[in-house]
Specification:
The protein has a single domain, classed as Ribonuclease H-like superfamily/Ribonuclease H (Nucleotidyltransferase, domain 5, 2-Layer Sandwich). The protein is 42% helix and 20% strand. It has six helices and six strands; from the N terminus they run βββαβαβαααβα. It has a six-stranded mixed β-sheet with strand order 3-2-1-4-5-6.
Length: 203
């Protein structure tokens, strides 16, 4: 019997949310879609969060992904940017959790490592590798979409491996894991395997 599953990858952001979908058939990747939600024209931060939630729900209801891979937040100098990015990720996760779709977080560095073999690869290098892996004819002008696709491919490569990231199968699992891990993270960011400590600006 042919085993199939669909993975939705999301690169959250309050300026642009990139996303991509792949289908796995007998352990082979097939490209479905990559695109972005452009939020630059909206000034209201809460409206942006609402649109991220609604777009994620729409993607879930349209493609019925079996799993969601999402790029995790990272530490940076700009606290406000970090807060906004965390909110964007949170509402995308909430959308998946509300539909009971299992979610796994990956640090930007882990995603780059999975795709290119280097955790310090550029967006362009990641995009080019995805183009080769999935046979994409063209690449989008904005590479946030390929970042979302990269999260999905990273998840496929790491499926079945131990400690691939933080995974949640629903609200109960999300609450349980975060409450039990709070004490473990008091020592600082070095104890959190999903955090990328590189100093990087992002809205």
């Amino acid at each position: 019997m042919t085993k199939e599953k669909i993975i939705l990858g999301i690169d959250p952001g309050t300026t642009i949310m990139g996303f991509g979908l792949i289908k796995i058939v007998d352990k082979k990747m097939l490209f479905l879609q990559l695109n972005e939600l452009d939020l630059k024209k909206y000034s209201d931060h809460y409206l942006k969060l609402k649109l991220i939630f609604e777009r994620t729900i729409e993607l879930i209801d349209t493609y019925h992904p079996d799993e969601i891979a999402i790029e995790a937040p990272f530490f940076g100098k700009n606290v406000q940017s970090m807060l906004k990015l965390g909110r964007a990720q949170g509402v995308a996760m909430a959308a998946g959790l509300s539909r009971e779709v299992p979610i796994t977080e990956y640090s930007p560095k882990k995603i780059k490592m999975a795709i290119t073999g280097s955790g310090n690869a550029s967006k362009e290098q990641v995009a080019k590798m995805l183009q080769s892996l999935l046979g994409l004819k063209t690449l989008p002008k904005n590479l946030d979409a390929t970042d979302g696709l990269a999260a999905a491919v990273c998840h496929f490569y790491n499926s079945g491996k131990i400690e691939i990231g933080k995974s949640y199968t629903g609200w109960a699992a999300f609450v349980k894991q975060n409450s039990s891990s709070s004490s473990a993270t008091k020592g600082g960011p070095k104890n959190n395997p999903i955090i990328d400590l590189r100093k990087k600006k992002r809205s």
